[in-house]
């Protein structure tokens, strides 16, 4: 996949990405300025026609790796692989063990409580491991949606 430089028009709307050579020429001629360094984005100083193609975004959420891609009908603009955290379940288990040990150290009788669980109050609740996975999908794909014009999910 060739490198691409994201382009924003004079009014701040995204245009189609260009090659680094084209971006370098625009910057040298004073027709563009650097907007962001990561991902490298330039903003045009002059008015343009605003022609864009449809960009299709795809996400494949596997168990160990999440793959993302943004492409037009002719070429791939962005591809990324994200490895989400896999230690959340172990951290929760360790936390539960420490909590139980703390409760067992107390000598008085402690009545078991089952009605004070927070997840029963919230309807959109996700398990911590699933929550981390969904956030790792939404952050990079949200950045690609902002920098790609007329994007739609597939």
Description:
The protein has 154 residues and is of the alpha/beta class. It contains 3 helices and 8 strands, in the order E-E-H-E-E-E-E-E-H-H-E. It has a 4-stranded mixed sheet with strand order 2-1-4-3, with helices on one face. The longest helix is centred in the C-terminal third of the chain and has 20 residues, at 128-147. The two termini are 20 Å apart.
Task: Please name the defining characteristics of this protein.
154 residues; alpha/beta; 4-stranded mixed β-sheet; 8 strands
Give the SSE order as H and E letters: EEHEEEEEHHE
Radius of gyration (Å): 24 Å
Shape: elongated
* Average of per-residue pLDDT values: 80
Give the termini separation. 20 Å
Percent helix, as a range, is: 25-40%
Strand order of the largest sheet: 2-1-4-3
Q: Low-confidence stretches at least 5 residues in length (pLDDT < 50)?
A: none
Number of helices, where a helix is a run of at least 4 consecutive DSSP H or I residues? 3
Which class do the helix and strand fractions yield?
alpha/beta
Strand percentage lies at: 25-35%
Main β-sheet: number of strands, strand sense, barrel status?
Answer: 4 strands, mixed
Q: What's the total number of strands?
A: 8
């Amino acid at each position: 996949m060739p490198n691409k430089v994201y382009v924003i028009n004079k009014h701040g709307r995204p245009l189609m990405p260009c090659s680094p050579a084209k971006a370098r020429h625009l910057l040298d001629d004073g027709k563009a300025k650097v907007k962001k360094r990561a991902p490298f984005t330039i903003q045009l100083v002059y008015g343009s026609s605003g022609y864009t193609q449809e960009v299709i975004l795809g996400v494949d959420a596997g168990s160990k790796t999440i793959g993302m891609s943004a492409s037009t009908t002719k070429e791939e603009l962005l591809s990324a692989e994200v490895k989400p955290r896999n230690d959340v379940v172990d951290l929760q288990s360790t936390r539960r063990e420490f909590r139980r040990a703390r409760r067992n150290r107390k000598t008085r009788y402690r009545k078991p409580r089952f009605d004070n669980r927070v997840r029963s109050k919230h309807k959109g609740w996700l398990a911590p491991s699933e929550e981390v996975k969904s956030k790792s999908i939404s952050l990079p794909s949200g950045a690609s949606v902002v920098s790609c014009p007329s994007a739609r999910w597939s």
